[in-house]
Prior knowledge:
The structure holds three protein chains of three kinds.
Chain A: H1 9-16, E1 23-25, H2 35-39, E2 50-57, E3 60-67, H3 78-94, E4 98-102, H4 113-132, E5 137-141, H5 150-157, E6 160-164, H6 174-181, H7 191-198, H8 200-205, E7 211-213, H9 217-226, H10 236-253, H11 259-265, H12 279-286
Parallel strand pairs in A: 3-4, 4-5, 5-6, 6-7
Antiparallel strand pairs in A: 1-2, 2-3
Chain B: E1 2-8, E2 12-13, E3 21-24, E4 31-37, E5 44-50, H1 56-69, E6 72-73, E7 75-81, H2 86-102
Helix pairs in contact in B: 1-2
Chain C: H1 3-10, E1 15-20, E2 23-30, E3 33-46, H2 48-64, E4 76-85, H3 89-93, H4 96-112, E5 117-121, E6 124-126, H5 127-131, E7 139-142, E8 147-149, H6 153-160, H7 164-171, H8 181-186, H9 198-207, H10 215-221, H11 228-237
Amino acid sequence: MTSYYEASARERLADLLDPGSFHEFLPATERVVSPHLVQLETPAAFDDGVIVGRGTLDGRPVLAAAQEGGFMGGAVGEVHGAKLVGLLERARDEKPAAVLLLVESGGVRLHEANAGLIGVSEIMRAVLALRSAGVPVLVLDGGQFGCFGGMGIVARLCDAIVMSEEGRLGLSGPEVIETTCGVEEFDSRDRALVWRTVGGKHRYLLGEADALVADNIAAFRKAAISLLDTKPDLSIEALTTEHEKLGARLEKFGSCHDALDIWSALGIEAPEGLPLLEADSFVAKVAGRRA
Amino acid sequence: MEKLTFEFLGGAPVNATRAPALVGVVGSGNLEILIEPEKLGGRCAVEILTAARGFGATWEAVLDDFFARHKLADVRISINDVGATPAVVSLRLDQAVENFLGGAQ
Amino acid sequence: MDARTLLEKLFPNGSEVAFDGLYFAGTGESSNGKVAVIGSIDAAPIGVELAFRMAGEVLRIVREYPARPDLPARPILLLVDTQGQRLSRRDELLGINGYMAHLAKCLQLARNKGHKIVGLVYSEAVSGGFLASSLLADRCYALPESQVRVMNLPAMSRITKIPLERLEELSKSSPVFAPGVGNYLKMGAVNALWEGDLSQRLAEALDVPPEGDSRRQWGEERDGRRLARGVAERVRHAAG
């Protein structure tokens, strides 16, 4: 069993898709690197930290992208963003069974902040246009750097999210909040606090993650296959339902100070024990209790 | 940042149809290595972009050892480095060659 | 420029806009007909409540003012003044990124239903707050005195460990990382700066026919973002 958390973006893609099926677009040999990093005397990567291509999953054609957290925390720069946008637009042309986004990103790359921010907004527009055209976009989140910043918004624009407990999903990372607002607002070194605030289990309980899986690539693969037939729905009915759910969340949990308060309010007994459970027993224990 | 280039002669040419190989990640203490077949008149060309300045002699020593192990010719090796130790560099170079020569023709 | 003055200039024929805290919404009379207005004031931090409220207003507009045989779907003007996303553990706990994504989906629904969406940065637009609002418009415009950024250079220097002097020097020739509405104009995110008669600029913007996301192209034409369009095209059409 290969750990999703420990694997590189390339290893994740190779093991997630059908064996040998992955074909990369603009591979390293094309050397489409960031000129902005070089200008700031910072080494660039030949793939700019994101691998995009096509393959099959359970025999069905998919397009897939994987961000490499090891390179600049998976942050989005001009080239990185454009590769994702190009892949999403290609999916509008080709209509694959789904697009898989193996996210791992701290958000916008500061060395090219304006290009990164605009790039993320283009990814957002492209995801929404693609879903409007009927192609589902599935997110996998279980890497070491989590999924934050603009990519955290992108993830929640998609059709479904698969997370491991180790995966994290949010907007402002704990370090950013601690640096700006002080350690009393968010102690980023309190690992337990970080994981129960932005980790996979909390996201699953809130209904944001559709599947919570163990930290291995095979489990992510199985969950992704089970979500392949998801039908994108951006109708007014669907968004009205989402609006009501988000409104109910503010009403019910808006005054909660900690994830434990929310888990209690969901009617889960001994919520302090949840972080210790393996994925399977966790999913079984919280069945019927998710928001 | 520093750019270094090295050349080695006297290796055995590899088949030009071999698929390129890429190993490693451009992260702190790590590096990525891309090996490609290229008609270079029997040379093995190495180009390094490294975040750490002033280690040219160390790189040369590591690459001399590498070339002694793997006598390649008509090969281009491109490296993006963020301060990997010589031990890590050697390990990655060996991995890259293994993937390159073990991969599809 | 404060929001009330701005509304008077945009809608000399009148507007009915209700202000509530940092949020405002209502309707303005343009020469092209009624325009729905949604916005914020005082460099509002965009937190879960504000994003939720804006999304609700978009849904209401889509429900109540759809396209009719004699009248197009009511256009939406975003006038969001924001210092960025609200930074708090509570917002993260409640899934602030999901609230922003919800707002983005509601705007896409409006777009799909034929509502034109125009963004105007009239004071400040920063990072996540910009991402969740004006950057989602069909076209984003800005007033020349407005401020647009991800992060100021001293903070950027601390985090990237690149000397401030180097960043300052490079920002004179590169629009790619430094704050400034001119940089966003050059990179194609801001379509144009609005000067002169603002009601006229709005009328012109409302006359632009719907188009896809052309910002990469503008960025390339203006020599601000040289790679994005070409790289995306190559991935889209790569063999295989």
